[in-house]
Amino acid sequence: MKSLGIKSSQIMRHLYNFTRLFFYKPERIKEFVKRVDEMGFDMNSKMFLHAIRAVSSVTVKNWELKLELFRSLGLSDVDIRSVFQRHPHVFTISQRKIKDVTQLLLATGKFDISFIVNHPDSLCYSIKNRLKPRLRVVEVLENKKLLPKKPSLTSLHKITDEKFFEKFVLPYSNEVGEIYIAREFS
């Protein structure tokens, strides 16, 4: 890997977390590096080996199917490269989940495709346990005009369950407590 220009510090950082990478033949690693390079990745990026990991986890056929899926959802090739560079792990998620999360977010009318391009990690969250309950809680609070200010859509899905509960459920437990608690038992 060093002969391909990958820094020793990057290699060492991934030695324990991604040992499988070190068992590939050099030719395979060259293929992975080439595919990552084709996506416009900077070899000096801290995310470079994460990108290698993602590429190595997906067959070429499935990779092409993911590219087609993203295009069918309205992403340009530039958008797709941006998604990959920001969060390579997205390419290891099932096509069904990518499609379902995208459709859920777009259906709210609060998100557009550029949100997904800029925050591809949103595709990684659970629909059932995180996205739907949180979107529903905020919708109820907004409809009842209980929120002093509109929450950032980014922080809405990124904050921990504990912080979300403290900020959006506990103070309004009479209005939304049942909605949020229902997700625990569904």
TrEMBL record:
Q: Which UniProt keywords are listed?
A: Transcription, Transcription regulation, Transcription termination, Transit peptide
Does this UniProt record's set of keywords contain Iron? Answer: no
Give the InterPro entries listed for this entry.
Answer: MTERF, MTERF_sf
Give the top-rank taxon of the lineage listed in the UniProt record for this protein: Eukaryota
- Gene Ontology terms describing biological process: DNA-templated transcription termination
Organism, by scientific name, is: Ilex paraguariensis
Write down what this protein is called.
Answer: Uncharacterized protein
Similarity-based family: Belongs to the mTERF family.
